[in-house]
Amino acid sequence: MTKMSTPEIITESRDGTLLIRIHRPDRKNALTVAMYTGLTAALDAATQNLDIRAVVLTGSGDSFTSGNDIADFLANPPGGDESPVFQFLAALRQFPKPLIAAVNGVAVGIGVTLLLHCDLVYVRAGATLALPFVNLGLCPEAGSSLLLPRLIGYPRAAELLLLGEPFSAEQALEWGLINGLCADAEATLELALTKARRLAGLPATAVQLSKALLKRTEAEVVRETIAVESRHFIELLDSPEAAAALQAFANRRRVG
Q: In terms of CATH, what superfamily is 2-185+210-255?
């Protein structure tokens, strides 16, 4: 077993699998620029390490991730392809090995859209998910404007992305957004790790080639969609609507 830890991104490898844990439970695992850099580094290291054959991504405490840390986000807004959040999305999109999400609790914003790039997703029963981009004066990201309608149909995707209303893990399963539900966070992680160990025991070349083939027909359009979304996302960040909505959200968090 090998452990490599930073304060907020903890990695642990064992038996051909890598566990990446988002660890900021006091802030519901809200993501900062530094955490995006840590996640990208973990995925890049897993890509290069021939001993790692599958990766599990999870969160600490009662949350998977509540999305961007708004204060950090406002202080360090993304400005182009080299921004840490977009580097993370590129690493996520291109990751060649099986990637499994163990969603142990609340997932918001990018905490949901990143799931669209995972190969298997297991969620704790009762968990709540939300995509409140429009509510914050922003637009979808991570290719979600393309991938979500393809996965669950346009009417449901429009409802989730335009209204930004929370939805349940049970609804996500019914719609085909996730693979399965587990009774609690511990069971969710254990199931994800069991699937990862199973994949790690299969012929690595065949597994990775099969993943590449599954994604082949949409790989280029996903890349293009992320690029278009990112450009509009950056533009909207400069709008008065987004500034007001994000500041109001940050103020509510400070009061709460």
A: 2-enoyl-CoA Hydratase; Chain A, domain 1 (3.90.226.10)
